[in-house]
Design brief:
eight-stranded mixed beta sheet, single chain, five-stranded mixed beta sheet, Rossmann fold, alpha/beta
Length: 357
């Protein structure tokens, strides 16, 4: 197997043609194509948190040039607790689907196939098996996994309840095993955040792509990448071919906590995406009219100091007297320590307002 690095610069269409010619040579395209981008949050196309609709639109153009009349669908299962159509609208994918006349599918509502896997049974979108499945991740830092890349992007195939289970039971092992049961026909990963504009890593093996990204970044492979080796995701040997990289941003560093003043937000891989998202929500929506009261409370804690923890078995250190436990997973910690508890799975800004002193 091989991982193909393309440094497209201003010729992204040429790169997509090269990638498709290199890897999609034996597929039955009469089945149609399923494109799975990363659209986890309702953010604008240039946010650097989702894969740009420009990339996906360009890939669709190339697919249609190569395979006239091909049946293409776009599907994504957004983070548990979010409104999929708000994600699609804000991110520009509703406009993309309309302009290119392509179905845009909420995977949470799609037909499912039940599979046996290491942890029992798992329901995954049928289209990931019936169509030629192209995985379209964005390489980015992750507070849960150090990097979010090809392996982790497949988490978007899961139902919301399974997304939460993945975090609660151990995200790294679950991601590794997921990639043992569903394997895209092709993965094209946008690495622009670290390696420069329009740099892509492509191949048929998600583990090899993420491993290559770690090697170029000069970081140790995160647990889910190492575990993927043991699940049989990797082939016995692979080579990296293609272009060279001219520049690179600093590698991601998993910080123990983020902070808003003296309010320390502790990272935990066992906290699901939406519990972590609440703090992004704080920064963007804190002083909207309906959130003013909770904004004032949190502003006070940002001055006096507080520890904010989330997820089961959180790792944290107590420097401030006030401890705020976020979400249902922290109920026992809050009970044992006599700490402030914010219920919900995930909590909302209204829950914060109601339960914060």
């Amino acid at each position: 197997m091989a991982v193909y690095l393309t440094n497209a610069r201003d010729h992204i269409k040429d790169s997509f043609h090269d990638i498709l010619n290199a890897f999609l040579t034996e597929e039955d395209f009469s089945r149609g194509i399923f494109l799975k981008p990363n659209i986890v949050f309702p953010v604008k196309p240039g946010s650097s948190e989702i894969i740009s609709p420009f990339y996906v639109a360009t890939l669709i153009e190339v697919l249609r040039e190569k395979l006239p009349g091909i049946d293409i669908v776009i599907g994504e299962g957004v983070a548990a607790g979010l409104d999929p159509w708000e994600n699609f609208q804000v991110s520009g994918y509703v406009d993309l689907a309309r302009k290119m006349n392509i179905p845009l599918i909420d995977l949470n509502e799609s037909e499912r196939t039940t599979l046996e896997w290491k942890f029992g049974k798992l329901k995954l979108p049928t289209m990931a098996f019936e169509r030629t499945y192209i995985n379209l991740p964005l390489l980015k830092p992750s507070s849960a996994c150090v990097i979010s890349g090809a392996l982790k992007n497949q988490k978007g195939l899961l139902l919301p309840t399974d997304k939460k289970k993945f975090h609660r039971l151990g995200l790294h092992a679950q991601i590794a095993e997921l990639n043992a049961v569903v394997r895209p026909s092709l993965t094209i990963m946008d690495c622009s955040l670290f390696f420069g504009r329009n740099v892509l890593l492509s191949g048929k093996n998600c583990g090899e792509i993420d491993s290559t990204a770690c090697r170029i970044l000069g970081i140790e492979e995160p647990d889910h990448v190492q575990m993927a080796r043991n699940t049989g995701v990797f082939s016995p040997g692979f080579e990296v071919t293609g272009d060279q990289i001219e520049r690179m941003s600093p590698p991601p560093v998993l910080k123990e906590f983020k902070h808003i003043g003296r309010l320390r937000l502790w990272s935990n891989p066992q906290a699901c995406t939406m519990c972590r998202y609440i703090f992004r929500d704080m920064k963007t929506n804190l002083f909207k009219r309906q959130n003013v009261e909770v904004g004032i409370k949190l502003f006070r804690y940002s001055i006096t100091g507080a520890e904010v923890i989330m997820g089961s078995n959180p790792n944290w250190r107590k420097e401030h007297d006030t401890v705020i436990c976020i979400g249902a997973c922290t109920r026992q910690v809050a009970k044992e320590g006599g700490y402030i508890f914010i219920p919900g799975c995930p909590p909302t800004m209204e829950d914060l307002n109601e339960h914060l002193p």
